[in-house]
Structures are given as C-alpha cells and as structure tokens.
Amino acid sequence: MSTRISTAMTARAVLADLQEASNRLARTQRQLSTGKLLTKPSDDPFATNRALALRAEVDGLDQYKKNVDDASSWTTVTDTALSRINDIAQRARELLVQASSDSTGQDGRVAIAEEIDQLIQGAKQAANAQFAGRYVLAGTKTDQPPYQLGAVDTFGGTTLPAGAVVREIGPGVSVQINVVGRDILGDGVSGDGGLLGVLRDIAAHLRGGTPADADLLRGQDLQRLDASLDNITQTRATVGAIANRLETASARLDQMNEASTKFLSDVEDADMAKTIMDFSLQQSVYQAALKSGANIIQASLLDFLR
C-alpha cells in the first residue's frame, strides 16, 4: 500500500527544517554578540555546571586574596608601630647610659626623667596604631585603644589566645596576624616584663637620687631595658615571618586564580573566529533553505512565511 505525501505534510517538514535552522542561527548570533559559548543552561547542562563550579572557585580565591591583602596591610602597620616603640626604647637606653655617668648631676637626671616620661607617652601612642580604624595591638578589641595616654598604663585590649586576630588565606588555612601590645609594653607594673614598667622604674630611680637608685640604674634597670629591646626585636621577627608567609600566599593565590580563570574561559567563552565562521555558514544555510522552500511550497504560503 503506497503512502501519499500531501502538500500539508511537506509544508510542515519544510517549516520544521526552517525552524531548526533559525534556532541554530539565533544561538550562534547570541554567542557572537555576548562572546560566551554558554548563554543559557540548556546550551550545555554539563558545561554550565562546570562553569558554575569554576566561577565559585574564582570567587573564593578572590576573597582569600582580599584577606591576604588586608592581613599584609595589618602586619605593615604593626611593624611600623613596633619600629617606633623600638626607637623609643633605644632612646631610653641612650638616656639611661648618660644618666648612669657620674658626670651627670641630679638636676640632669631629673631632666632625663622628664624625657623618659615623654617616651612613655610616645610608646603608648605608638601602640595605639590603627589600620582602617582598627587598633592593631589591642587583640580582638580592635575598636578600643589598647592604652590611654596619661598616668594609667593598664592594657585595655584582650590577651592571647583569646585576643588572636586570624585571617583565612586559603581552603582550611588560617594565620594569626596580630601581636598583643601587653606582651611588649605590659601594664606599667614594676617587674611585669613590659617596657612601660621598666621605663616607670627608670624615671623613679632617676628622681630618687640615692646611691641605691644609681646602682639600680647601672645594673637592673639597664638589664631589664635590654631584655625589653630583645623582646621587641623577637616580636618584629615574628611579624616579619608572618609578612613573608602572606607574600608567598598572595603569589600562590594569583597563580591559582589565573589557572581557574583560564579554565572558566575555556568552558564558557566562545571561540570568536569559529563562531563568526559558523554564523556565516548558518546564515547561508538558512537563506538557502528559504529559497528551497519557495520551490516546494506554494507561493502564497512562502509569502506568509517571509
């Protein structure tokens, strides 16, 4: 039994072919105008899923890079503050050596004590260094200055380990970026190991004027001041090591970001040269399909399609 192919069936087949050619042409045109191989999930569900995963990875790397940059700036401000405190301690040592000389009279020692008082205030001011409105030596109380200027030397921040400020610089990788001012300056109490307590004792012994005070200046005070200087140096070395680690992490994140961005581009970006060629070819195919349809379908219907 033979099957008769009607005009309506032919028209439907021609219309289907034209629709398919038109869809391909439209998709290629979108790729050409956007520069993206994936313009909607249905273009390639697997590739779309891969692109979303890569984009999330790139976003995560960008956040880690911001954390590293923030931490690097934090350590820079911290080292600057420690450098200033170190200069103050060195100046105090010069004054202490000068005051220990027998050629310096009591009036001279009192004058040196006045300068030591100013150095104490300078050390506290340096310890109140800020980055982006946050006090870097205050532990986790970054909204409050660790030291108040004046006679009170009590540390106002938080101490370690509760006072640790941490930044995540990679997947599952965190680093403590801060040091605590109390570990360097103390609370101004004699014998607590902090610089402020040492300087307060030196100022008191300078004003005392007794032979016992003079012996303390030459012996215990000088030794404790040298110990404070060593502590500052060790702390700066720790900050320097953190800064080096952050620099390494920054370079590694840049490399990872570059690789992930390239993978993302390979997945979702269109090959423009190929896309232009495809568009030209598909446009020619579509035009040819229209002309072929004019020979198959009656003119009135083709006119309607056009």
Let me know the CATH homologous superfamily of the domain at 54-265: f41 fragment of flagellin, N-terminal domain
Between the first and last Cα atoms, what is the distance in angstroms?
A: 37 Å
Number of strands: 4
Characterize the biggest β-sheet: 2 strands, antiparallel
CATH architecture of the domain at 54-265: Up-down Bundle
What order do the helices and strands follow?
HHHEEEEHHHHH
The helix tally amounts to 8
Taking all Cα atoms into account, the compactness measure Rg is 38 Å
Broad structural category: mainly alpha
Q: Main sheet: which strands, in order across?
A: 1-2
Please provide a written account of the structure.
By secondary structure, this protein is mainly alpha-helical. The protein has a domain at 54-265: f41 fragment of flagellin, N-terminal domain (Up-down Bundle). It contains eight helices and four strands; from the N terminus they run αααββββααααα. A hairpin with a 2-residue loop joins β1 (130-131) and β2. The longest helix is centred in the last third of the chain and has 58 residues, at 211-268. The two termini are 37 Å apart.
List the helices and strands and how they pair.
Layout lengths: L6 H28 L10 H56 L5 H22 L2 E2 L2 E2 L30 E5 L2 E4 L5 H4 L9 H14 L2 H58 L3 H25 L2 H7 L1
Antiparallel strand pairs: 1-2, 3-4
Quick structural gist:
This protein is mostly helical. The protein has 8 helices and 4 strands; from the N terminus they run H-H-H-E-E-E-E-H-H-H-H-H.
